[in-house]
Structure formats: C-alpha cells, structure tokens
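YM 10:42: Phage portal protein sequence, as discussed on the call
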Amino acid sequence: MEMTITRALSELKMLDKRINRTVDDAVLGGLMIGKHIQNGFQKQEEVEKKAKADDQSIQALIKRRNAIKSAIVVSNATTTIDVAGVRMTVAEAIERKTSIEYDIRYLRKMKQVYKELVDKAEQTNEDVKKRLDQHLETLFGKDGKTQAAANQEIVKSFLAENEAMMIDPLRLRVKIEQLSKEIEDFQMEVDFSLSESNTLTKIQIN
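YM 10:58: structure's back
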C-alpha cells in the first residue's frame, strides 16, 4: 500500500490513540470463583475469546504502527530538501529544528559579551577623555587643549596608558550578523520545506 508521508503521519497519531485505548480496555484474562465468571461474563469461553481478540487487535495495531514508522524513518533518511539554500535530508532538517537551540543560545551569549565589551569600552573612554582634559588643564592651564595640539606626544602617551580597546579576535559583530541570518532563514523556511516534502513524498507500507 502506498501513501504520502503526510497521510502516514496522520495515521500514526490515530494509531497511537487506538493502541492506548485498546490496551487500556483490553480483557486479557478473567477470574472464576466456584462456577461463577467475574466481570460480566457468562462462560469461560467468552473470556477466552475476548482475550484472544483483544490480543490480536493490539498486536495488529502495533505491527501497523511499526511498519509505518519504519517506512517514514527510511524515507526521512534518504529524501533531501532545500532549506534556506542548504541541501539536507529530511531527518537532518528535523534534527536541526531541535539542535538549533544551541546556536540560539550561543548567539545570545555573543550578543551579551559584545554589548558588555562595547559599553565598557565606551564608558571607560568617556572617563579617559574627561581625565585627559583635566590633565591638560593642569599642565597648560585653561588653554590646555590648544597647547596640546603642539605637543601630541602627551596626548598619545596618556591615551596609550588609559584608553580602552576591545580584544575581538572572533569579529563578534560579523559573527552575530551571520549567525542571526542563518537562524532566521532556517526557522522561516524549514516547516514549509518539510510540509511540502511530506505532501509529495510517498512510501510503501507492506
């Protein structure tokens, strides 16, 4: 029997419910006290018949579910789709929907670190600028800034000793932009790509 992945997934949900319901309601044995059968049965044969029928139903439902699930797993491992310009199997796309949380967490960390470094550097350099002005005024009086233009060595020396500069070997701003785009593009397209593939891809159920 041939069916689309979409239909197979729908049947899996239905089978899950039927298996649980059938197992919960199953009569797999009975009790006889003296000559009286318990739980509403009149004869021992009725209990035996019901137990065997319930067992067969449960086994058939589980077998059907296993066959559909196995066919889907095989299909997902071999069917390829395009998600935001990246070619991957359906199985990889499904796994990526979960593992992308690690990228999101790392992105948050990079944004946090970058903001903290930028803010700290800007605040530090604002303070340095004020201290430099005070230092020049002490050396040259109120015309310190004008005088300093003629003696840049003092300014350079002061800034070299006090100015803050980010150590950014990873080029965080660029990495943040790149990773943000990758995450956004994937999340925007993956569900549509999977849905489209599931509608078109067919599997054979024996």
